[in-house]
Amino acid sequence: MNKSSILALSLLLLLSGCGYFEQARRDGAYFEDDGPPSDMGPDPSTISDAVPVIEPLSRTGNKPYTVFGVQYRPLKSADGYREKGTASWYGRKFHGRRTSSGEVYDMYAMTAAHKTLPLPTYVKVRNLETGAEIVVRVNDRGPFLGGRLIDLSYMAARKLGVVATGTGRVEVMTVTPRTASVPVQEIVVSGEQVDSVFLQAGSFRLRGNAEALRHQLADNGLAGITLTKTWVGDTLYYRVRVGPLSRGKAADQGLERIRAITGVEPRIVEVRH
């Protein structure tokens, strides 16, 4: 085998190992040796959509790359992205493997693969036939066959209603973190004298989103970060807070730091004694 043949074979094996290489599909439903889990997995109604949170770009998966002779250049920004096309999905064959972002693929998570959107990016996917909508977190590259626009995780495809058909016409648009969309509830410990405050940077239904925000704050030098669990009615929220901080200059500086890092307005939670 000559040098060029060895190089081509090595590239093929590399792509197949990290989710780049796609085999021909029999009927469009999934890869020839892929498919849904044997037990169908959790009820989709119990799985929440991905909740957008500001995150740094992943360390891998955002540089130009070539697959099947086609070069792709990931976008620097996803702002304003909107496109219609065909969605497909991938399941058990890739479950537990590394995605292009370096994360482990979980077919029960609300994630997706896209050829050029920055990793990670949050997008809303709308089924053009049924009007159903989901929000997923793009953390992988693909799909590379059939002119498809986006590859959904198994669970995302179930929620969107395209598992049985294998593919579906969709519209994909980016969504960004919005302060109004973050469910929060201020907690005040009864009393008279306000000694200190906590700054609530975010409140989420998914622990992974809260962890991502906690790491983002820590990576930017903030200290005193806590992640707590709080039930509001029948819903469990994961809250990310910074503090306690003295009222006045320390709290004001903390507010400015969190705004600069996340782009959202933190909530002041008073602690009374």
TrEMBL record:
Name of the featured protein: SPOR domain-containing protein
A molecular-function term among this protein's GO annotations: peptidoglycan binding
Gene Ontology CC, one term: cell outer membrane
InterPro entries: RlpA, RlpA-like_DPBB, RlpA-like_sf, RplA, SPOR-like_dom, SPOR-like_sf
Gene3D superfamilies: RlpA-like domain (2.40.40.10), Sporulation related repeat (3.30.70.1070)
Database matches in HAMAP family: RlpA
Record carries keyword Ubl conjugation: no
Keyword list, A-Z: Cell wall biogenesis/degradation, Lyase, Signal
PROSITE patterns: PROKAR_LIPOPROTEIN (PS51257), SPOR (PS51724)
SPOR domain residues: 191-271
Gene Ontology BP term (one): cell wall organization
